Amino acid sequence: MHEPDKDLIPGLRAGDEAALRALIDRRMASVHRVAYRLLGDRFEAEDVCQDTFLKFWRAAPNWRDGEARILTWLCRVATNGCYDRLRKKRPDLPGDMLEPVDSRAPVDRKMVADERWDALQTAMMTLPERQRTALSLCYDEAMPQRDAAAVMGLGQKAYEALLVRARRALRALMEETEHA
């Protein structure tokens, strides 16, 4: 198993804060995207990220090579942290999801694209947590299915089946929106 953060492991095991800062610089955006997609709240996602990296910092001295990739471990811990928060409180549908901006598009096409993007984000937030997680790991993080399955604590076939159900559900929600 190739570990892209292998160069940081000795420093992390030794408690080197510079190695932790380097890891955060490399992996914060990915972990935050996963948490944000699940929670729909930037501040909650930042809290989950902070907790996740703190947990890793505490676990780093005992890190064993070859058991898991660091990013997989981080995403798994962040996902579990999000699930814990969602169990405690159901989130409101966000109105401030990240939107792609294309200043070259004509205004009317941009408005239609913005409306479709908003509908997609709203539909994503109505999916069950596990389906949302599967889609986020696949599309937001472009994570290989083997790794995404590990993050979710599933076998690869179970992850693939969950992803198929999530795609179907999202497609159905989007069709409902278009016909409404």
Automatic annotation (TrEMBL):
Database matches in Gene3D superfamilies: 1.10.1740.10, Winged helix-like DNA-binding domain superfamily/Winged helix DNA-binding domain
Domain RNA polymerase sigma-70 region: 23-90
Residue stretches making up the RNA polymerase sigma factor 70 region 4 type domain: 118-170
Keyword entries, A-Z: DNA-binding, Sigma factor, Transcription, Transcription regulation
InterPro entries membership: RNA_pol_sigma-70-like, RNA_pol_sigma-70_dom, RNA_pol_sigma70_r2, RNA_pol_sigma70_r4_t2, RNA_pol_sigma_r2, RNA_pol_sigma_r3/r4-like, WH-like_DNA-bd_sf
Sequence intervals crossing the membrane: none
Record flagged with keyword DNA-binding: yes
Pfam families: Sigma70_r2, Sigma70_r4_2
Family: Belongs to the sigma-70 factor family. ECF subfamily.
Cross-referenced NCBIfam families: sigma70-ECF
Protein's recorded name: RNA polymerase sigma factor
Organism, scientific name: Algimonas porphyrae
Gene name in the database record: sigW
